[in-house]
């Protein structure tokens, strides 16, 4: 039965430096003081409508909800600079404590929200506000985990599209204030948002958004003056966490690693939970992702995601639920593609998952493409080669990309890319039984280049009987010799394909792509030494992949010993 809700708009909340931030407060019209859930957003508090959890859903369960514009955004005072994380922790602390002191709050406060709204939760929790009882960060990451996922590359389209939207607001604010706006600046911002492939092909990249006074220039990011992702002192986060991620989220690795780090320092069951769905990075989490309809349980609604949040808060914010826990099925819920159901695990990866290697090998019987074998090839070592030209990169198509720009995320068909001469393919025989790939996947390649610095990019796909090759996971790694000359021996390249839960059905085949670009999702390596984004020119490179014998290249999967049957969890 629904509750009557009171909503107060633009409620002032004074920070320690006197700056006033404003929030909308949602609360039950009747009843005693209640626990509160705080959302802090730079995207406007009024349109907040996340699939993870909404203020209205909080009120329906007897919680108050506070939705605040962060410093310098929309109704809040102060100055806001893109990617300046220094103020978010103190502002989060002050807002938690303000909330706890209101007459409609019983003194227990949680935080929730997605992406930026998740990052500010970690930053606030590090400050240890006395009345913060739990956080629920969805789709977040931290600097070291993000760097590990990218292998030294720059998530180019993600960064520039987000900064492009910020630059558009900057131009609009200057115009509204009567400041002159250079027409060339406006034209570049519009071009970045509408036809980004043009400015993103520049050498060097630091000339993009290089506007005097713009608080978020790529030049400053490359110079280390601005951090694209926040870092956390996790040892100072003492509250329970409810982490939510997606297999095709740009921050999937970070979300999982943050959960694992919290479990490692605080292993009590039920204190730190993880939900990983079939989703891309989005505030809306429908059942259709890429080219796959995941069925009725694949959406946030089908997963009961809001209820899972509020159940967690009940256990940690209400006296009657503090000791209850929900460890019967384990602290991890994950969605298994192909089974299209939710599964529970004690931890991540599931303890029952085992390593299973698949070995790259050369073609056989007149075939052009290589093979992927469950046993090491017997014919000795071999090699395949291709030419990587940064001026003709492999285009991005699906995967873990942000959809602010012009890219599409998720499990998309890669077949059109497989015809390119700069994409090497290694494919298994059709499977005779289901194979549940669940956990962290890695790829070890013996990779050579005639350039002194280069990159290797890899993908794992599911080849259907009809020829579709759906993207499951992907990885990248920048390679460079210490002395700036081409390596005498192949690199021993360890690529992190990341985590997934995917059932390869009987009759399907596993396939590995090996190439050197994924543009504009990732910046193009110029094949010359130097810092990311600062190269002024590029050159083609002849790339060689070795396999067999002493040059073993191997895909290492984590698989369940037997096909798993899920439930709706």
Topology:
Elements: E1 5-14, E2 20-28, E3 34-41, H1 55-60, E4 64-69, H2 88-100, E5 105-114, H3 116-126, E6 132-138, H4 143-150, H5 156-176, H6 183-194, H7 218-222, E7 241-248, H8 252-265, E8 272-280, E9 288-289, E10 292-293, H9 305-317, E11 332-336, E12 341-345, E13 354-361, E14 370-373, E15 382-388, E16 424-427, E17 435-449, E18 453-463, E19 469-480, E20 491-504, E21 509-515, E22 541-547, E23 554-559
Parallel strand pairs: 3-4, 3-5, 5-6, 6-7, 7-8, 8-11, 14-16
Antiparallel strand pairs: 1-2, 2-4, 9-10, 11-12, 13-14, 13-23, 15-22, 16-21, 17-20, 17-22, 17-23, 18-19, 18-21
What is the rounded distance between the termini?
Answer: 24 Å
Rg computed from alpha carbons, rounded to a whole number of angstroms: 25 Å
Give the integer mean of the pLDDT values: 94
Largest beta-sheet details: 11 strands, mixed
- Determine the structural class based on helices, strands and strand pairing: alpha/beta
Tell me what portion of residues adopts beta-strand conformation: 25-35%
Number of helices: 9
Number of strands: 23
**Poorly predicted ranges:** none
Q: Using the alpha-carbon principal axes, give the shape.
A: globular
Please estimate the helix content.
Answer: 10-25%
């Amino acid at each position: 039965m629904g509750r009557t809700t009171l909503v107060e708009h633009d409620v002032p909340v004074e920070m320690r430096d006197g700056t006033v931030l404003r929030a909308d407060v949602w609360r039950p019209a009747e009843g005693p003081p209640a626990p509160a859930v705080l959302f802090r957003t730079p995207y406007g508090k009024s349109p907040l409508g996340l699939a993870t959890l909404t203020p209205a859903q909080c009120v329906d369960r007897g919680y108050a909800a506070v939705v605040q514009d962060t410093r310098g955004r929309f109704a809040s005072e102060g100055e806001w600079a893109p990617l300046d994380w220094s103020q978010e922790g103190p502002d989060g602390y002050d807002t938690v404590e303000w909330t706890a002191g209101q007459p409609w709050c019983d003194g227990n406060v949680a935080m929730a929200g997605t992406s930026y709204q998740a990052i500010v939760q970690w930053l606030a929790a590090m400050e240890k506000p006395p009345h913060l009882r739990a956080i629920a960060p969805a789709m977040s990451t931290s600097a070291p985990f993000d760097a590990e996922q990218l292998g030294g590359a720059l998530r180019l389209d993600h960064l520039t599209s987000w900064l492009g939207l910020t630059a558009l607001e900057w131009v609009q604010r200057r115009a509204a204030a009567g400041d002159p706006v250079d027409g060339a600046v406006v034209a570049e911002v519009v071009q970045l948002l509408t036809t980004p492939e043009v400015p993103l092909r520049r050498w060097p990249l630091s000339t993009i958004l290089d506007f005097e006074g713009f608080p978020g220039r790529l030049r400053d990011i490359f110079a280390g003056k601005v951090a694209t992702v926040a870092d956390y002192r996790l040892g100072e986060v003492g509250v329970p966490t409810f982490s939510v991620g997606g297999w095709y989220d740009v921050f999937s690795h970070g979300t999982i690693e943050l959960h694992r780090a919290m479990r490692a320092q605080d292993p009590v069951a039920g204190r730190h939970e993880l939900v990983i769905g079939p989703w891309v990075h989005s505030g809306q989490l429908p059942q259709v992702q890429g080219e796959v309809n995941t069925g009725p349980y694949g959406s946030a609604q089908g997963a009961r995601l809001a209820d899972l949040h509020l159940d967690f808060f009940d256990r940690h914010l209400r006296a009657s639920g503090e000791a209850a826990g929900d460890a019967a099925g384990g602290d991890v819920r994950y969605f298994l593609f192909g089974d299209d159901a939710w599964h529970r695990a004690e931890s991540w990866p599931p303890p029952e998952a085992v390593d299973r290697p698949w070995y790259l090998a050369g073609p056989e019987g007149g075939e052009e493409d290589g093979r992927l074998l469950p046993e090491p090839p017997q014919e000795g070592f071999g090699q395949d080669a291709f030419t990587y030209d940064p001026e003709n990169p492999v285009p991005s198509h699906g995967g873990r990309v942000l959809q602010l720009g012009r890219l599409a995320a998720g499990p998309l068909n890669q077949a059109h890319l497989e015809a390119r001469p700069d994409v090497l393919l290694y494919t298994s025989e059709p499977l005779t039984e289901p194979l549940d790939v669940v956990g962290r996947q890695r790829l070890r390649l013996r990779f050579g280049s005639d350039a002194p610095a280069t990159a290797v990019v890899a993908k794992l796909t599911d080849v259907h009987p009809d020829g579709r090759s759906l993207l499951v996971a992907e990885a990248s790694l920048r390679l460079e010799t210490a002395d700036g000359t081409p390596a005498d021996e192949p690199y021993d390249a360890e690529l992190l394909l990341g985590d997934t839960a995917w059932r390869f059905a009987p009759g399907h085949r596993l396939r590995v792509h090996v190439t050197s670009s994924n543009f504009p999702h990732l910046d193009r390596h110029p094949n010359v030494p130097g810092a990311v984004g600062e190269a002024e020119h590029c050159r083609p490179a002849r790339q060689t992949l070795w396999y067999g014998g002493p040059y073993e290249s191997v895909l290492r999967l984590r698989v369940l010993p037997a096909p798993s049957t899920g439930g709706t969890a």
